[in-house]
Design brief:
alpha+beta, OB fold (Dihydrolipoamide Acetyltransferase, E2P), 2 domains, 5-stranded mixed β-barrel, about 40% helix, elongated
């Protein structure tokens, strides 16, 4: 049977193919029978999956997040497609799967984004910051990972090339916003925006599916990024025969440590400089806007509202009010 991508599914399609399943839950029908509700996904999108009259034994064998073989039919429910499964079977041997079907990729041109990244960062005039940024940009192994990595496992820009796409978006915002505030150190903001998430190149794994590495779970991208910056600054000091300015290094590392805003969201400290506050706000602006756009584009049982989104403490209204 020819594979049908989620984005190409139409009502009445008969499906028998692998998917990446997540968010599985057990529900009860009005007649008190158990059913499965979950999300099935591939690189083209996501679709709600339902399996009626499921047993607890079958449910418990399904992975919380992993690959499954689904046989069923595509149906229309309240204006949205859903996959009604006859069987859902875990796939334990993934060696025969073509993972390109399942791993979402950026829709933007990676070489063009990488060129724009370098173009903006070339405007940094501070010698120490320019040298530090260049040490990462000229590291081919690092830049290969940076251009391929997702920006998150699932929250925002969760696709291959997502970290690069997110970072370029931040830098574009930075060069627009900073001139509005002449007393802001634009060089420091741009360097902070580029470096704030560099630890995600080691925090996340993305060869098989998006997940956290052991290093990511035990150390985390904020700590990793801060350590790398400190190490590179020391190497630059040794190479140049002069000390990388300690006060500059301190406020730059503060940006990395505080860019999540509050400890509740993972910040090691609260932002305590104008530049750190601005980096936090710009990062949050891009991440939250992308999360909102993703939410209203995703299928839900309600055609008017998305499911509850923890990041916004509410469901989001989806219909477009733009005049045609």
């Amino acid at each position: 049977m020819v594979r049908i991508g989620v984005a190409q599914m139409r009502e009445g399609d008969v499906i028998d193919q692998p998917f990446l399943i997540s968010g599985k839950q057990m529900g009860n029908t009005v007649s008190n029978k158990l059913y499965l509700k979950a999300t099935c996904a591939d690189a083209t999108g996501e679709v709600h999956c339902r399996m009626w009259n499921i047993s607890k034994d079958i449910y418990e064998k399904l992975p919380a997040r992993g690959f499954v073989q689904v046989r069923g039919r595509v149906e229309n429910y309240q204006g949205h497609l859903q996959l009604v499964a006859e069987t859902v079977v875990p796939i334990t041997d993934t060696t025969k799967l073509d993972l390109s079907y399942f791993i979402k990729k950026t829709q933007k041109n990676i070489p063009a984004m990488a060129a724009r990244l370098k173009e903006i960062l070339a405007g940094i005039k501070d010698n120490d910051l320019a040298a530090l940024v260049a040490s990462f940009l000229n590291d081919k192994d690092f830049m290969t990972r940076f251009c391929l990595a997702p920006a998150a496992q699932s929250m925002h820009h969760a696709w291959l090339g997502g970290l690069l796409e997110h970072t370029v978006s931040l830098l574009e915002l930075g060069v627009l916003i900073c001139p509005r505030y002449p007393d802001i150190d634009q060089d420091l903001v741009l360097a902070g925006l580029f470096l704030h998430d560099i630890g995600k190149t080691a925090e996340l794994s993305y060869e098989f599916m998006f997940d956290y590495t052991d290093l990511g779970k035990l150390v985390g991208h904020i700590t990793l990024g801060t350590l790398w910056i400190h190490q590179r600054a020391a190497a630059i000091s040794e190479k140049q025969g002069r000390t990388f300015r300690p006060d500059l290094l301190m406020v730059l590392e503060h940006i990395i440590l505080s860019h999540h805003g509050v400890p509740e969201f993972g910040a090691a400290v609260l932002p305590k400089t104008p530049e750190a506050i601005l980096v936090n706000l710009i990062d949050n602006l891009d991440a939250k806007t992308q999360m909102a756009l993703d939410a209203v584009a995703a299928p839900t049982e309600d055609a008017t509202w998305t499911e509850y989104k923890k990041a916004f403490n509410t469901s989001l209204y989806r219909p477009s009010i733009t005049q045609k």
